[in-house]
């Protein structure tokens, strides 16, 4: 009965963790409560199901389900979020880095083309947009590669990768920050501070422009799935997780590392050029990745004890203890 009760409790945590993000707008509870419940789902699965490759994949999926809720939750009340949004500090920092002008503005003025009928999409633009879209596969693809080809490296790769996601999401709650395209649009609409500091309405969100051109009527539904929080900009988790992927791949071999770093650099350029991120967002993302890598070994003993505790519960739930 103890085994059955433990398994039932574990699967109850899984069910609650899956349901919490879906119900977060309907339940009158602080967001941190539903978010905590969401992050218990991977732990519940580790107890309720024996260790296998399928379980590893499912745990990563549940972790990302909880992360997506953490990413989107601050935007559940857009007006309240915008009142807390920071516009000025990344613009000031990027103007310093760009010798008086935003690097995004410099790049778009030098490389982007506008014709009489609207944007003109050259090969470079298309490559950079697709580089941006490919990001959805890179960090998770790296973790999957470790699981299949280097299983001994998988646990550390998964912990490092998803730690970057989770720690980064906390900043979206604490300091919602406008990306270049949002600041430009807010300035055009008279939002406080954005127009005066930015000094330009020229920043385009080229990824969305090309998405509307390429996907046509399918763009709206597609973007609604992958969007959800336009003020999740600082730090750039696109860059942070891609950099982590490159570092993990470099531990496997020089060719894998070269591919990883080439992608991360191309993505960094794309994010700034397309108007998605400031340079300082990328620097903050790199700092986040470096911090996770540096602090990881210090947290290792605690993580091992926690892992053993979960493993003991799994053994009891399935007859090994």
If you had to describe this structure to a student in words, what would you say it looks like?
74% of the residues lie in helices and 2% in strands. The chain contains 16 helices and two strands. The protein has helices spanning 2-23, 31-48, 53-72, 78-83, 88-97, 103-111, 123-134, 138-149, 154-174, 180-188, 194-198, 206-215, 219-226, 237-252, 254-273, 279-317, and strands at residues 113-115, 118-120. Strand 1 (113-115) and strand 2 form a beta hairpin. It starts with a helix and ends with a helix. Residues 188-200 have low confidence and may be disordered.
Helix content: over 70%
Q: What is the number of E strands?
A: 2
Shape: globular
Distance between the termini: 13 Å
**Share of residues in strands:** under 5%
Largest sheet: 2 strands, antiparallel
- What radius of gyration results from the CA coordinates? 21 Å
Number of separate helices: 16
**Uncertain spans:** 188-200
Average pLDDT, all residues: 89
Spatial order of the strands in the main sheet? 1-2
User: SS-based structural class?
Assistant: mainly alpha
Helix and strand succession?
HHHHHHEEHHHHHHHHHH
Which helices and strands appear, and what pairs or packs with what?
Blueprint: H1 2-23, H2 31-48, H3 53-72, H4 78-83, H5 88-97, H6 103-111, E1 113-115, E2 118-120, H7 123-134, H8 138-149, H9 154-174, H10 180-188, H11 194-198, H12 206-215, H13 219-226, H14 237-252, H15 254-273, H16 279-317
Helix pairs in contact: 1-2, 1-3, 2-3, 2-16, 3-9, 7-15, 8-9, 8-14, 9-14, 9-16, 14-15, 14-16
């Amino acid at each position: 009965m103890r085994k059955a009760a433990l398994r039932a409790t574990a699967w109850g945590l899984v069910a609650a963790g899956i349901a919490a993000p879906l119900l977060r707008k309907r339940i009158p509870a602080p967001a941190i409560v539903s978010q905590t419940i969401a992050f218990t789902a991977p732990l519940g699965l580790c107890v309720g199901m024996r260790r296998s490759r399928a379980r590893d994949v499912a745990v990563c999926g549940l972790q990302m389900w909880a992360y997506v809720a953490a990413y989107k939750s601050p935007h559940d009340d857009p007006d309240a979020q915008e009142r807390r949004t920071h516009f000025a500090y990344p613009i000031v920092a990027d103007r310093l880095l760009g010798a008086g002008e935003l690097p995004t503005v410099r790049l778009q003025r030098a490389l982007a083309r506008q014709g009489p009928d609207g944007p003109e999409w050259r090969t470079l633009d298309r490559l950079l947009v697709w580089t941006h879209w490919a990001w959805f596969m890179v960090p998770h693809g790296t973790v999957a590669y470790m699981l299949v080809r280097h299983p001994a490296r998988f646990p550390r790769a998964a912990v490092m990768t998803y730690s970057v996601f989770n720690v980064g999401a906390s900043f979206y709650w604490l300091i919602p920050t406008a990306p270049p395209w949002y600041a430009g649009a807010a300035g055009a609409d008279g939002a406080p501070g954005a127009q005066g500091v930015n000094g330009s309405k020229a920043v385009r969100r080229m990824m969305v422009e090309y998405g509307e051109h390429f996907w046509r009527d399918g763009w709206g539904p597609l973007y609604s799935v992958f969007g959800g929080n336009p003020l999740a900009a600082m730090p750039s988790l696109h860059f942070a997780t891609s950099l982590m992927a490159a570092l993990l791949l470099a531990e496997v071999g020089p060719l894998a590392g070269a591919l990883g770093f080439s992608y991360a650099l191309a993505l960094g350029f794309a994010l700034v050029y397309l108007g998605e991120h400031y340079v300082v967002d990328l620097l903050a993302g790199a700092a986040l990745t470096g911090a996770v890598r540096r602090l990881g070994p210090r947290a290792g003993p605690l993580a091992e004890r926690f892992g053993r505790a979960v493993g003991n519960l799994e053994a009891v739930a399935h007859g090994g203890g």
